[in-house]
Amino acid sequence: MMRGDVLREYVRGSLWVLPSLAVVAALVVGSLLSLVNLGVRSPLAFQGTPDDARSLLIGIAGTMVTVIALLLGLTVVALQLSSTQFSPRLLRNFLRDRPNQVVLSVFVATFAYSTAGLYTVGVSGGNRTTEFPRLAVTGAIVLLFASLGMLVYFADHLAHSIQIESIMSVVERNAIAVIHGGILEGGGPPSPVPDGATALPALRSGYVQAVRVERLLDAARRDGLRIRLRPRVGEHVVAGTTLLWVWPLQPGAPASTTAVDQVLDHAVRIGRERTFEQDAAFGIRQLVDVGCKALSPAINDPYTAVQAIDRLSVLFCALATRQLGFHVARDAAGAEVAVPGRSFGEYLAAMCGLIRRYGASEPIVDVALLRLLANCASIEGPDPQRLAAIDEQARLVIEDAERRVLQPADLTAVRAEASAVHTAVSRRLELGDARDLRPSP
User: Fold this and answer.
1) Does residue 206 sit in helix, strand or coil?
2) Which neighbouring-strand residues pair with 84?
3) pLDDT tens digits for 71-90?
4) CB 290 within 8 A of CB 147
5) Angstrom distance (rounded) from CA 204 to CA 349
6) Residue 410's closest CA among 348, 376, 372, 360?
7) Do 165 and 86 contact (CB within 8 A), yes or no?
8) Which domain holds residue 367?
9) Of 124, 145, 162, which residue constitutes the final position of a domain?
């Protein structure tokens, strides 16, 4: 049976769920309107014969089939463009786009409503009749005009949604929501895993989508355990390999994993794809993909890469203000759950490394990366190793730029921005934001 959080995530990213509900709603509304008898002189009644009404419903149904085919064709084009031009990982964002689902729902509902009306309009018991639900036929006309408005809206929405600025804005908004509300922040150093710890395997292969720490902590409290996950949220696990370690609070005591086994499938959700629920690195990966694609020889669009870096700057400035790393939850009795997480330096190295290697020969990309680093260094953060990571990435960027950029004059802006990063790091050190500029071993 599908769990509630899994069901919500599935429904949010499915194109068929909302249209299916719209069809059911249209049939119910049509049935109710068919029970209302209006006189011919009513302003809400369809002014025509049964044959006119049937012709109208047939025309609406045929038109909706054509429009639905057009909508699906345009959607496929948008998906193909997004996948090939920017990143295949952006397809999920288009599938989750609520306006597309609503427009398709209105079209499908209009088709279902009109087609179902042919069973009752002008026919009764298999014989022709002059009586028909005039209000229900008027409802079909209303849905037709609503579909016309939705068609115009869809054309406008699609034209805007395939623009790179809109695509990156959606990714930034989703990722920043995770950073502010869903990310598992650090909570102190975890207890080391002893040699005799019990390893519990993953029940299925896939990506770790979310970890319900409170459920694991309840299970650890009941059995007097400490629990430590092996993969981070967003990482892939293989069925049968170690998912987490469990060991008792008292050394040498037997470790009962009954409570953990009962909640494990619900506490650690593993799915076939990464999600935004607790995985800020997923949004970073999407923007990095856009930047790397733009810097590829096939596309050769450095400015799009700069735009991606500007969006990444917003995410990294938000990450810099948070305590990252291991998320550790404990109770008063000593029960503990530790979930590994990425440090700020790991996030930074993964992002800067990919874009730097692709775009080191383009000065404007180097300047954008250094500007991102300067922004991160200029704000206050709790991680004492944050400035060391920023300084290290700035050094790598300037070294690669000096090796790959051929014209010395092109390096002027790069060196100036590197100097700004060093100034920001030094100023932050003077304010006591970090104790040590040396990278941690």
Assistant:
1) strand
2) none
3) 888 888 888 877 787 888 88
4) no
5) 30
6) 360
7) no
8) 343-430
9) 162
